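Q: What does the assembly look like in three dimensions?
Context provided by user:
Components: three
Sequences:
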Amino acid sequence: MLRQIEGSRAVAETVARCRPEVVCAYPISPQTHIIEALGEMVKSGALAPCEFVNVESEFAAMSVAIGASAAGARAFTATASQGLLFMMEAVYNASGLGLPIVMTLANRAVGAPINIWNDHSDAMAARDAGWVQLFAETIQEAADLHVQAFRLAEELSVPVMVCMDGFILTHATEQVDLPAADAVDAFLPAYEPRQVLDPDEPYSIGAMVGPEAFEEVRYLAHARQLAALERIPELAEEFAESFGRDSGGLVHPYRSADAEVVVVAMGSVLGTIKDVVDAQREAGHRIGALGITSFRPFPGDAVRNALAGAQRVVVVEKAFSVGFGGVLSTDVAMALSGLPVTLSTVVAGLGGRPITKSSLGNIFTAALRGEAERLTFLDLKTELVVRELERMSVRRRSGPTAENVLRDIGSVGSGIG
Amino acid sequence: MDRVRFYQVGSFAVGNRLVSRDHRTVQSDTARANSLTSGHRACQGCGEALGARYALDAAMRASGGRMVAVNATGCLEVFSTPYPETSWQIAWFHSLFGNAPAVATGVAAALRAKGRDDVRVVAQAGDGGTVDIGFGCLSGMFERNDDVLFVCYDNEAYMNNGVQRSGATPPAARTATTEAVGDHPGNVFGQGKNLPELAVAHRIPYVATATVADLHDLEEKITRAMDIHGARYVHILVPCPLGWGSASQDTVRVARLATQSGLFPLFEAEHGDVVRTTPIRRPAPVGDYLRLQGRFRHLFDADGNPARPDVIAALQAMADRNIARYGLLEPAEPAEPAEPAEPAGHPGGGDGSS
Amino acid sequence: MFEVRFHGRGGQGAVTAADLLALAAFIDGRCAQSFPSFGSERTGAPVVAYCRLAERAIRTREPVVEPDCVVVIDPTLVHQVDLFSGLAADGYVLINSSRRLGALGLGTLAERFRPERLLTVGATEVARRQLGRPLPNAALLGGLAALTAEVSLPAVSAAIRERFGRDGTLAERNVAAASEVFQQARLALTADGRAVLGAPAD
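A: Here is the predicted structure of the complete assembly.
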């Protein structure tokens, strides 16, 4: 059913149609509207049978989900940024145990400095935890991915996080076709656990594993993700048949088949990128884009196939590896190794800094000219950086960096000092 | 007529045929669940292994075997599940170190969502996983009144990790991070958390303290707890021969001295009020308790005389404060003479312990 | 594509206004996108919200840097925030105030932009009368509909009803407020190239 709806609301209503049995979460911007909506549905009886647990921390949230999933219930939680990091031990625990929990990650920057706006640093912090990580480009896709996520998670016994850009998608409204309840039921059968806490068939779960077997148990987790690489496109196709639209899958090429330059990105920025690609195509340039939906497992072959014909690849990413360069870029580079493709990294949108068509346009133009730098921090205000570095070289007691830079912005803005 | 107490039918004997069948301990029953069966790797004389077996078998009896256990990381989890073996005969889940209460909450929520609330949930952890790293989750579980019985096995330090101090370590005790050196050897005074009192402050339906020295008492308390729904907490003192430096055959004796000295009061509380206490039957000075443990060795000289009478006096003052606070030396109410139904040798009204 | 930027303060409903506009456009059969740009919850802090209307699906996610219309819910933001940055030369301005542009210190706006596309309306006063509370966001959309014709008044009313659906009285009062502002704006726009409206007393 078509509705003009807020992203968080679309996700909440879709998750509700997936019949979760335990929903638990700790509030954190910008995921709050998702959990509030689900809480209301449980309290009013609209979502039943479902237990909604108001937990005391994100660590507790993932722990409650773990207990619930181990007891055979379909479990859901949501978090962002600091919350994800606070639950990190449990995040690894969930995937190590093979519990099919689904979590919405409303992508938000990780501090210090504290920042509530969107970037991908939180998701990147969990990329080796063994969770499947899917990135939504639109609110529609964010909603749809949850349906596919529960199915994938339960089939393969691997937890899945659906990443959607905080504020940009969670707090925006757009036209969404919410999947009908019966269609979701047909796509997503009841959860049949591989392992479950049951007094009628008691066994121990969560053993310590020593050097003699640890590698094998971990390899099996790896195998689950390799299996996900196969299943993700299959489920996307099945979803398209059932619901009539293209959501999910591993990668989405856009006008990249004959492109000289291909721009790679994840999440909502792809929308802006596509507008710029169209404008530059209109001007006669051979440029395209590649959206990566499945970040983990990383679809190396699909990326390689999509980019093999390009001369230059520009990875626009909302995170970076401090002191080195890109994160997504590193994975893309690995997928392209051996191919004669030049790769540039553009770190953009950190902490919610807007990524404008005009700034992207400049970068793409430079790439088309073969002049793209290896690593660019988009729209970096160099003068602020220089001033702080100067401050630090002059005095030992130079003060907190973040506050210094903010003061600089203030003084520049008001013309004082 | 003075009330005569037949202590020989009390819990000095695990199985005692003089006691009527329904007053015998779960442990004396050959049909007990043996939740924690033999083959585990606990140290000789481990109080925790004893306490866990007592507590879980009682819980299994009370729930008709319909129970799931969630276990935090720690000694109990480690020695009970040496891969690839497990000595648990119940549905058992190893959580993380700090989240056993939260995981148990999740299990209980799942069972409720599935309409299976006949299945009960017991969570268990050592003092570290309860008092320190698990406290946030525990307080959350209490606050929500989740239907979980949480059992803390308190051996007063991070034993599995090498005997480091926890928030439950008593003052003056030697641990690896509170060595018996300097002017204030051992753990300092003025720190530490009293989890049973914190649990009472949460006003949850049931809180109790117990030790492995009083089997009847422990089983009764677990059984009483299992009869209640909502958040429940039982705190069991479990001596650790290794960490406490006590002889492995002294575990029960040391636990008994902890209660008889007043250092570990036995009580039950409901919804924030203490409703029952166990009086001290044979008072003992704290010195008797301390002398049996190597972790307090520095308080005595080679001949066993107090080398730090000031510290011992401070510990005695703590014990005396407990005795006063809980009324542990008050004479027990004499039983009403006209109670013919009581069988001869009944362990005595209200005094479920030795 | 028609891009609108709303300026307000936390608690005045700028975000809701943008969402309502998007919903109204959707009801009118168009594609719409709305999203906020704000910080932590704090009453009184400046808030910006965006809305894009188009005939095809809207893909871009950048903030509205070149709005076709600027709506100012709180006139005290004038001179504190650069409200009109990027506004198209033939863009629209709708300010919630019963005072004239000149009295707001914005007399020069008419020189930079098209005077017949600049409008001030006393939506807060209308809201006070209709709702009993100074919440002008829904009422202002009536003015927006009249000024730009990018959405219809029936669509605005339907959006208000859907959004405040649970509280029928609140919805109807907001619809009444929006209609009143719409009528007044219409009158002003036909009467005078640069219209100022509202109750005499502030």
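Follow-up: Chain A has 15 helices and 16 strands.
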